[in-house]
Amino acid sequence: MKAVWPVVFLGLSAANFALADSTGSREGLAWLDKMAGASNHLNYSGTFVYQHRGSSETSRIAHFVNPAGGVFERLEALDGPVREVIRSNDQVTCYLPSSKTVLIEQRNARLLPALLPESLAGITESYVVRIGRRDRVAGHECQVVALEPADDLRYGRQFCLEIRSGLPLRVRTVNDKNEAVESFAFTQLRIGGSFDRDKVKSKYAAKSRHWRVDRSALNVTEKAVETGWVVNNRPAGFRKLMEINRSIAGRTGPVAQIVFSDGLAAISVFIEPLPKERPAETTLTHQGAVNIYTRSYADRMVTVLGEAPAATVMQIANSLELRSSAAAK
Fold it and tell me: Which candidate, 144, 157, 155, 168, places its Cα nearest to that of 44?
């Protein structure tokens, strides 16, 4: 559960948004659908700033779609510890020069986050979609679209989407007080251009031949199962997406994972045997908009994390139980 790069967002004041109506909702969903597919066919490069909880990070990104097939990205931190992340289709390699370490992961994820799922079904059950005015970001005109939560169980999102492509130029994740918990914005951006493999090559690939290579994230097997665990007080609007057992190298036993989503926010539940050194009864931490809550349950350790308010992840964790039949087994 280690993040290669933080999820990032930025946006505009809520005062910019018009009153919602059915026409505005349909138009807003059309914009969000356009955003969801932007990175599947778009080439772009630029610099963006990620802000969360009083800190900020500046990074440079290059994203190309090869006409012959494949998606390639390079992400480089411009301040703080030196980091470089290279994506080649669904393989992600992170270079950490300070520790002379290379982390390799296999995953289907974009390095520039904040894009919606391919399907927007169910979004309007938990969020009100509002269309705002047009604005400019990094020299590009963009359309403001907001997703306002129907309750305090989820965060709101405020997007500014590039007019032609739908690429998110600014995104902001806000709490129930309209305070930003996480934000993202391009400060310089070039959209278009032909595929250039040199721009997505690592500057550390040759230097790292004698570095430590960590492939532990690749040594994971997954199997869809009924784990026997159930959430008795599931937050409204969240549906179960998957339920699996994960076998991870170095763990004493399989890790059960259950994923819930309301169509935008995703929350993962992990259940595993307690480690030899028993942790604190409960802990609550966060990384940007992601809240992480851990508690012990009998001889298991339960970890719930997701881009949702702390009360939401805690509600799921505290209402998780093992079905009586599974417990007996």
Answer: 168
| Beta carbons within 8 Å of 7's beta carbon, 6+ residues apart | 113, 114, 182, 288, 289, 290, 307
Spatial distance between the Cα atoms of 149 and 125, rounded to a whole number of angstroms: 9
Superfamily in which the 219-328 domain is placed by CATH: MucB/RseB, C-terminal domain (3.30.200.100)
**Segment 139-185, tens digit of pLDDT:** 999 999 999 999 999 999 999 999 999 999 999 999 999 999 999 99
The SS3 call for residue 315 is helix
Per-residue pLDDT tens over the stretch 122-136: 788 899 999 999 999
Distance CA 103, CA 3 (A): 11
Edge-to-edge strand list for the sheet holding 290-297: 220-224, 239-248, 255-261, 266-273, 300-306, 290-297, 282-287
Q: How far apart are CA 114 and CA 170, in angstroms?
A: 10
Query: 244 is written with which tokens?
Result: 């699996």
Q: How do the domains of the chain map onto residue ranges?
A: 14-214, 219-328
Same fold flag, 14-214 and 219-328: no
> How many residues are given for the chain?
329
Query: How would you write 195-227 as a 3-class SS string?
Result: CCHHHHCCCCCCHHHHCEEECHHHCEEEEECCC
Residues 72, 85 contacting (CB under 8 angstroms) = no
For the residues of 119-177, what is the DSSP string, one character each?
Answer: --TTHHHHEEEEEEEEEEETTEEEEEEEEEESSTTS-EEEEEEETTT--EEEEEEE-TT
Which CATH homologous superfamily contains domain 14-214? Lipoprotein localisation LolA/LolB/LppX (2.50.20.10)
- Record the tokens describing residue 172, joined without a space: 């902001």
**Amino acid (1-letter code) at residue 151:** D
